[in-house]
């Protein structure tokens, strides 16, 4: 699906987790076509994109696999996984 949408799987994974903000409307439109979303479902998706708020784990090292004894490298890797790939710019002004 990511190939058909033209996005990396890492980027889409972060979108699903609430780390990355919603992508441009054209990508969401393609997604709706791929999953055969009805017109009201597509409208609901756009409404949710306008109301999006980052997940609480965004820009943190929070992760279920992290524990107090975790190495510095592991903690830095978690922060990288919880850092957005782009700013929230596509849906801000709607």
Main attributes?
single chain, 94 residues, 5 helices, 48% helix
Structure overview:
- By secondary structure, the chain is mainly alpha-helical.
- The protein is 48% helix and 0% strand.
- Helix 3 packs antiparallel against helix 4.
- The longest helix has 12 residues.
- It is elongated.
- It starts with a helix and ends in a 13-residue tail after the last helix.
- The relative contact order is 0.19.
- The mean pLDDT is 86.
In short:
The chain is mainly alpha-helical and 94 residues long. It is built from five helices and no strands.
Order of helices and strands: HHHHH
User: What is the average per-residue confidence, as pLDDT, rounded to a whole number?
Assistant: 86
Strand content: under 5%
Low-confidence sequence ranges: none
- Class by helix and strand content? mainly alpha
What is the overall number of helices?
A: 5
Distance between the termini: 27 Å
CA radius of gyration: 15 Å
Give the biggest sheet. none
Q: Identify the overall geometry.
A: elongated
Tell me the total number of β-strands. 0
Helix content: 40-55%
Topology:
Blueprint: H1 2-5, H2 9-17, H3 25-34, H4 39-50, H5 72-81
Helix pairs in contact: 3-4
